[in-house]
Amino acid sequence: MTEDYVYNSSEWKALSMSFVEYPKGDLFGKLMALLALSPLYIVAALSALALRCRDLHTIFYFVGITLNELLNMFLKYTIQEPRPVARDNYYVQYGMPSSHSQFMLFFTVYTILFLYKRLHTNSLIERAFRGIGALVCLILTGLVCYGRVYLLYHTVSQVIVGGLIGALFGLLYFFFVHSILTPYVFPKIVSWRISELLLIRDTSLIPNILFFEYTATRQESRARLRKNMKMQ
């Protein structure tokens, strides 16, 4: 009885980061609600990639996403424009600019620039991979942005402004990383003792890190296999 009383008398609030409403029975609305969770999936995937690879470019990509979110929160509380529909379970009632559109445009612009500026190889398969990757980013971003208006979380202007800010910040941040941090800062960071302890590395000069890791692992495995055979 005591537990029931605490539950009923306390004010409970949904975790709004993953709480998305859509019209009951609307399958397209349900799809838009699922796609609205894309930023969470991207952050989770990028976090896992940063922990796995320990590459400075990946780590600073995550830093850029964090700065982009902080910029969005600052603008929201400065402009204080309400959302088209007030929702009690949403932790920020301000809607200008849209955090989803700003996030997705930052992600898309940065990713496309990374694919075409950092991946220097020009084989047919890799060109196709870059094109498909860019197209997927653009389609996903378009659907997420449309969904924010469709589900009445933002007005069209809030989505457009958020997208423009995210795209511009993504463009500026990429060239900051590519033109300043990569040649001048990353070599110093990897030389630190703490970077050696944490296995942090800089793969900026390797055009295809996946192929490099594959060939390096295969050569090392063959060398160890030959060594083991000689010892038997």
Low-confidence stretches: none
Overall pLDDT confidence = 84
Q: What is the terminal separation in angstroms?
A: 71 Å
- Biggest beta-sheet profile: none
N-to-C SSE string, H for helix and E for strand: HHHHHHHHH
Class by alpha and beta content: mainly alpha
Report strand %: under 5%
Number of helices: 9
Gyration radius, in Å: 22 Å
Number of beta strands? 0
The outline comes out as elongated
Estimated helix fraction: over 70%
Describe the structure using short key phrases.
232 residues; mainly alpha; 72% helix; 0% strand
List the topology elements.
Blueprint: H1 2-9, H2 27-35, H3 38-53, H4 56-79, H5 99-118, H6 124-150, H7 156-190, H8 193-197, H9 209-231
Helix pairs in contact: 2-6, 3-4, 4-5, 4-7, 5-6, 5-7
Structural summary, described in words:
With 232 residues, the chain is mainly α. The protein contains nine helices and no strands. The radius of gyration is 22 Å and the shape is elongated. The model has no long low-confidence stretch (mean pLDDT 84).
Can you give me a brief rundown of this structure?
The chain is mainly α and 232 residues long. The chain has 9 helices and no strands.
